[in-house]
Amino acid sequence: CTTRSQAPYHSSISMSLLLGLYSAPSLGLGGARTACATSRAHACMQQQQQPGPPYAGPRSTPLLDTVSTPNDLKGFSLAELKQLSHELRWETINAVSKTGGHLGSSLGVVELTVALHYVFNTPADPVIWDVSHQVYPHKILTGRRERMPTLRQAGGLSGFAKRSESEYDAFGAGHSTTSISAALGMAVAHELRGLDQERTSVAVIGDGAITGGMAYEAMNNAAYLNSRIVVIYNDNGQVSLPTGTPSAGGTVPAGSLSAYTSRLIASKPFQDFRDIAKSINRLFPSEIQQANAKIDEYARGMVSGGTLFEELGFYYIGPVDGHDLDNLVPILENIRDRGGKQPVLLHIKTDKGKGYPPAEAASDKYHGVPKFEVATGKKLTAPAKTPSYTSVFADSLIDLAAADRSVVAITAAMPGGTGVDKFGKRFPKRTFDVGIAEQHAVTFAAGLAVEGIKPFCAIYSTFLQRAYDQLIHDVAIQKLPVRFILDRAGLVGNDGPTHHGSFDLAYIGCIPGIALCAPSDEVELRNMMRTIYEVDDKPTALRYPRGSALGLDVLNDLFEYGLDEYPARGKALPLGKGRVVRGAREDVSSRVAILSLGTRLAESVLAARAIEGAHADVGVTVADARWMKPLDTALVARLAEEHDVLITVEEGSIGGFGDHVLHYLSLGGFLDEGTLKARPMVLPDKYIEAGSMGEQYEEAGLSQRFIEATALRLLGKPVSMGSSSLADEEPTIA
Q1: Bridge partners, 127 (sequence order)
Q2: Is residue 29 scored above 60 in pLDDT?
């Protein structure tokens, strides 16, 4: 670990004088109380990595204990900032080990977080974190340290930036590629309001998020508007999750931009403050520029002129080591104190998972982890007793691809989360990871379909929202057989409202000519994969939730499958046809039908059993719709005609499956005589915050006891809700 002498910086000092000061003995930095060799050595010693387990952080956190808000950093010396970073890194590790969450990205920006809050006047200078899964150190430094044990829990801290949580969270996030647009909007608003104080809007965006086209739309507009923003491009080589998945582009991060920035870094060493001082002259008033013309001329040969970012109108600085506070702090101070309004892009290189060896060694850098043992890095998860829906999809797709070379998989930087990584290991040349570019993914799939390829476009339900126009304009109108795989449909658990797949039934169901299905279990998922594979005249969409499937015992108990093992292959289902899984008993005075779409079917069967067990005069039929489009109108009509009560259940918002059923019932006159009571059960019209999936479905009123209570109320029978008995669920991570 090495340090460099430091010099104070003021914008009024000429660049020549600045270079002289930089070469002189240390005069301190930002109110530094000492810069002696002993302090520097102590800070470096504290940051050395341990060679092996057991891993442990500092026994005490004396500097972090003094920080309640970023203002408390302002008097720290550079050596103290380094020590604070060491304490903050281990505070983050220890906190996430108890809750689970996004660890690797947070560890990669510890020094950057400290530097930003030290240099800029937050929250007056807004810092916008793209995606914001890296904000745990930021939360700790901004008054939320004591609440970190509640991270991503019901009633606790969000796992992302959230404006209602803190004034330091300038802009909420969860999805990517929004930070530059938001920072630009805030900068322009500051100018429009005519506020006198000079302010800098800062956007922190990673090399994954910057693969999205919206980043370039914003940068193109920023130079045109000439507003005072700073973009910090955090380049950590982790574009996709996990990076390294075999694909048609190899195992390198997705996209030419990552390769481009890698070449920038490889073509020259990291720039330090001395290099930056020679080149930053162009940002200052003309009289200073003229006084330093020779320096500026010399600098042109050293700095990467003509970069993509400069062509977009940004002043490019970098690459800079994002973990080296000796250089990062004075460079940020130079940027802060510059004259003019030209937007600046600071390119930093960081290591995801920095400072925690188990994270550094992992392929995903511990991007998202469950609870874990700090001393060893061992993840504390019980072995899965049943397969996940994601793995069932991946296995089914591999089976289809083994028999048909036209089958390909597309993902938008989420190969691990979607199961496409498993497919990629078997068929790398037929695997396409396009980066965080959902719009491109959809139209790319459309182009493949035009040429007779069978694309399976696997995108989380919440992320497909970002490509809605392409879904309609490029796929549906042209009736192209793109097969959309919507993982994480419904409520997703601890990631909260930005990641729920709440709206796909509504936003896809209104599009003409698309087939939309939702399996109730893992066997049905295999069957539906085979079904949509065989559909070649229209687009199809298949949605399923995160987490573990039901398992053979539950399937045989609830649905009477009679299986000793899972079927080796899926079988095609009739398009637009549902099924009755449980018939109502005979000779009863009241009959209830529960029509479920998706994995609420198990809860519906349990509710039916409970109703019939408690009320001898009631019979309950349970049906699985399977398809929202085309809707099985014959099944709906039969249920309406043969029952007194019809309840629809789905894991989606208003405007989805239940509304389509009610629309059909209304147009068909089934409600005219007043003999049928119909009720849709959907997600409530609100954003459901982080918690376990069980807690969330209880809050949404879609668990067994709520289905049971709805039926009993419609029958005019007394309702005893009782209390929920939720199992202790593992935290969920995107």
Answers
A1: 202
A2: no
